[in-house]
Amino acid sequence: MANTVIQLKWSELTATPTTLNVAEPAYSNTSGKLFVGGTNQAPILVGGKYYVDRVDEATSANTANVIVKRDSSGNFSAGIITAALYGNANTATRLQTARTIAVTGDVDANSVSFDGSGDVTLNLELTNTGVTPGTYGGGSQIPTFAVDIDGRITSAANVSVATNLSIAGDTGTDSLSLISDTLTFVGGDGITSVVDGAGNNVAFSVDNTVIRNSGAQSITGDLAVTGNLVVMGTEVIQDVSTVRTEDSLIELSANNAADALDIGFFGTYVNSGTKYTALFRDANDSGRYKLLTDGTEKPTSGNTVNVQAFSTATLVANLTGGTVSGLTANIAIADGGTNASAFPTGNLVMFDGTRLVGIANTGISAQTTGAADRTVVVQVDNYGRVVGLTNTAIAISTTQVISGTLPIARGGTNQTTYTTGAMLQFDGTSIASLANTGTAATYANASHVPVITTDVYGRVSAVTNTAIAIDTSQITSGTLGVARGGSGASSFSMKGVIVSDNASGTGALSALTSATEGHVLQINASGIPTFAHLNGGYF
């Protein structure tokens, strides 16, 4: 950079330039400011004499419109400072404006004025709630209170309570005093009452002559019901070893108003935990009957079976009618099935050792093959099926031709011998030898062309070398390269600067142009000529 000169734009009339190229500097003597061009060609203000003057005139005195600087003691003078100030004041005699201090809420206090010149005292007293002082509650009364958010009683009163208790039975009524009378609980047939003084309760016990729905006791002997036994509860538990009924058809799901409930029965067994098995009609699967086992979920009280919690059970039976469909597994070969669920239409079928499977068709279409001059190549698979047919032209080795001479009509020469080194011609009957006419030699070079004489057969009978000599007007194509004194180019841009190939110096010349004002021809870091604005380079 020792000899680099950077030219700045300048102006004695305009305070700010309108546009600048990227990193292009400019200075205005009118405003005393320095600018540089941004990426969007907008001038960016970076400094200038204007700001140097502002710094030079800074002072610690209280001077309007001048930058403030500290004096040698670090102090400066100023008028009113509008700001939030932090720290301690040297002195504070009183507040500029006195303030009134008062108390609100659930206490009463006198209001005082405070300006910082003296202490103040507030006399506080709880606010009167209006409750009459006294004693509340008694033998026949209970107190009622209202408490506010601060825990103070805001009202109080006595409420009388009843001292008589009315009682009634299946027959008869009475009234007793809670203060002086005793209520007695009397048992009856099969029922005994016991008062527990320690627990403050009355217990009733029944003997085995009383029918009940729970408890440790049970009815001894047989229970015979001569009429109909109607149970209105939701569950009947029979803990018996034998259930016998005269009904030959048992009705289930009598409350099934629509096809919404599963119908059947289930049982419980233990095998690595409690399991369930069920035979039922599935209302959620088009009414199909299902036999399930290994269930881990007991059917719900809503009369539904979660099929996903069961496995399919095995049924040993003879099936003599109906339709077999929707099987979850294929019928095995050993059971007379195919162990397969589908076969491709039109395909042959084979046993692969496990099941019957379809064999893909070979793809050979109906066709006629073979001819007098062709043979048929046949390809078969392991099943003996034709998988490929090829019409192949008959081709034999010359060693297989053992007699006769191949005529012209069959692609032959109709000859058996030839003259060594002679050219051949067709004489109307056969391809025969011709006598040689030329002299072996090399003709033509980079500066000569051959002049050639031929006979009636097109053979060269004479050759002479002739030097090449042409006018420039005879060059009608191509571009003369630099190596031959040309430019290597067919045209150049108007007003361009001609430069040589940047890489080897032997390529075509080219024209460098620029339509941007202020561009100059420069050499970049790679030594290549280019038009651009002057700049200070990179760092």
Question: How does this model look, in words?
Answer:
With 539 residues, the protein is mainly β. Among the domains are: 88 residues, no CATH class; 60 residues, no CATH class; 43 residues, no CATH class; 61 residues, no CATH class. Helices cover 1% and strands 28% of the residues. It has 1 helix and 30 strands. The chain has a 4-stranded mixed β-sheet. It has a 4-stranded antiparallel β-sheet with strand order 15-16-17-18, with no helix packed on it. The longest helix is centred in the first third of the chain and has 8 residues. The chain is flat and about 165 Å long.
**Percent in helix:** under 10%
| Percent of residues in beta strands | 25-35%
From the spread of the alpha carbons, the general shape counts as flat
Radius of gyration: 62 Å
- Number of helical runs? 1
- Adjacency order of strands in the biggest sheet: 1-2-3-4
Q: Describe the biggest sheet? A: 4 strands, mixed
Give the N-to-C terminal Cα separation: 11 Å
The chain-level mean pLDDT equals: 80
Would you report the number of β strands? 30
